[in-house]
Design goal:
The structure is a single chain. The protein has about 300 residues and is of the alpha/beta class. It has one domain (about 5-10, about 20-305): Thiamin diphosphate (ThDP)-binding fold, Pyr/PP domains (Rossmann fold). About 35% of the residues lie in helices and about 15% in strands. It contains twelve helices and ten strands. The chain has helices at about 20-35, 55-60, 70-80, 95-100, 100-110, 155-160, 175-185, 210-215, 245-260, 280-285, 290-295, 295-305, and strands at about 45, 60-65, 85-90, 115-120, 125, 130, 165-170, 190-195, 230, 265-270. It has an eight-stranded mixed sheet with strand order 2-1-3-4-8-7-10-9, with helices on both faces. Strand 1, helix 2 (about 55-60) and strand 2 (about 60-65) form a beta-alpha-beta unit. The longest helix has 14 residues, at about 20-35. The N and C termini lie close together (about 10 Å). Bound molecules: iron/sulfur cluster. Iron/sulfur cluster binds near residues 17, 20, 22 and 202.
Length: about 300
């Protein structure tokens, strides 16, 4: 029987703030799993610590709420133990790019075949809105006594040089587009990263939903708001590495595009390179029976009568 969107929802009370961008990301993950008819027992959502850390509580698959900054080691370990599992790791920008930055870079070097989604709102929402690594230099959100004194990290560019092989950016209020990005990330062979821009209406009073919609950015001729988001795929941009000889040229365009910010912010797939061996493939090259012996959890599930 076909699985419905409701089959991926739990009845756990959701205590995110009203208007939080987390809701759109949660819906997009559930929609992608339903679209792809992923059996709930074949998927596991891992999270770090932060508001987004509650995501596994709301998705009816296996779920592991891990430690601050440590979601990637847990998720990679699960995928290596059971290559048949769909593994999606989630976390905030502070969790993944602050305390978790070392794991972020190390994960890129491995290229384990899984998905990592960062809920990027530029603040530490769960602890009252301190500046996260993605808050731009000089920005003063309402929790800060002084403007941010640090430069911001560009998550897409950092993931690129670390070795992630699929890079995308979504927007939490464009749920269908984000769902399509998550589907592409799941089907990608290798480590996929999606940087999702999401308003935190409680603590980030600058990058609000209205700001992303361009309500402060009025076209002088039409007198209409000019949304800041535009879709790369509608511009003819092609981030896919069709041949390894293109890699340097594609990397250069990712750096250029991912640094666009302000009045125009690109979303979509920045880069996809399936010419890099995954970590599983590297292991299999050394341990010939790895792929046969690793899916121990799958064998347990199969023997449990579930198909
Ligand atoms: Fe969302 Fe911000 Fe509230 Fe956290 S503090 S639930 S990120 S709106």
């Amino acid at each position: 029987m076909a699985l419905k969107l409701s089959d991926y929802k739990t009845d756990v009370h959701n205590d995110w703030c009203p208007g939080c961008g987390d809701f759109g990301i949660l819906n997009a993950i559930q929609m992608a799993l339903a679209d792809m008819q992923v059996q709930p027992y074949r998927a596991t959502i891992f999270s770090g610590i932060g508001c987004s850390g509650k995501t596994p509580h709301y998705i009816k698959t296996y779920g592991i709420h891990t430690l601050h900054g440590r979601v990637l080691p847990f998720a990679q370990g699960a995928k290596l133990a059971n290559p048949d599992l769909e593994v999606i790791a989630v976390g905030g920008d502070g969790d993944g790019l602050g305390i978790g930055a070392g794991h972020f870079v190390s994960a890129g070097r491995r290229n384990v075949d899984m998905v990592y989604i960062i809920f990027n709102n530029a603040v530490y929402g769960l602890t009252k809105g301190q500046a996260s690594p993605t808050l731009k230099l000089g920005m003063k959100t309402k929790s800060l006594p002084q403007p941010n004194v640090n430069n911001s990290v560009n998550p897409i560019a950092l993931a690129l040089v670390a070795g992630f092989t699929f890079l995308a950016r979504g927007y939490s209020y464009d749920v269908r587009h984000l769902k399509d990005l998550i589907r592409k990330a799941i089907t990608h062979k290798g480590l996929a990263f999606i940087d999702v821009l999401q308003p935190c209406p409680t603590y980030n009073d600058i990058n609000t939903k209205e700001w992303f919609q361009g309500l402060d950015n009025i076209d002088p001729e039409t007198h209409k708001a000019m949304p800041r988001m535009y879709k790369l795929e509608e511009t003819g941009y092609d981030g896919v590495v069709h041949d390894p000889s293109e890699i340097m040229q594609k990397m250069a365009q990712v750096v250029e595009k991912s640094n666009e910010w302000g009045d125009k912010i690109p979303i979509g797939v920045f880069y996809q390179n399936e010419h890099v061996p995954t970590y599983q493939e590297r292991i299999a090259a050394r341990i010939p029976d790895y792929m046969e012996n690793a899916p121990a959890i799958q064998q347990i599930a199969d023997s449990d009568g579930r198909t």
